[in-house]
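Hey, resending since the last one bounced:
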Amino acid sequence: MLRYKALYDFEHLPFLEHANFAKNVATRIDGSEVFDAPPKTSEQLNTAAQAEIDAYAAYTLNGGKDEHIKLLASNVELSGMLKLDADYVTMKADGDKYLIHSAGYHATKDREVPEKPPYSVKAGDTPGTVVCHFYKDDDTVSVVWICYKQQNPPIIGNLKMAHATTSNTFEIKGLESGAYYCFYAAPVRYKSDGTLEFMPMITCLVP
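The structure tokens again:
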């Protein structure tokens, strides 16, 4: 029998999706016969999720540094609460992926919850910048990054940057503050046919 664990993939959701994910988890807690003693109550999750929503609204309206700091802080606090709950769900589900799904999480058959995703993007310390990080393995020579401003429907002309780097960490500058950008990364390996396989998209709000 395969044993599953709850994923931390909520960490890289855009702010509003992150908060709504937590609200969904909160609704699964109430009345659950299996997950009857979570480390954080549904009320606590809902309160933290609403704090992130409010912080996002304040940052969208004013776009100030203080608002941005509060938004990031609310995001980190809510992620911490969700991690505690995900670990609790993993323990109580005892490897059953359907129980994990019933609590609102995605499940993996890996023996450990991955703490480091293949790559991440976060807001930079200065306006208009983001910091990209790729966890390279021994077979990876370099990483190709591309990004474009998020728009619906997507416009190819919005491509902002395509860059290859041998560094694990890469800073992108000159982006529009207060806008969401979409990021993709593809590893270049020692033995490959030259085809780039870009990993799933990550979105990030630029400070």
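The chain has four helices and nine strands.

Sorry for the duplicate.
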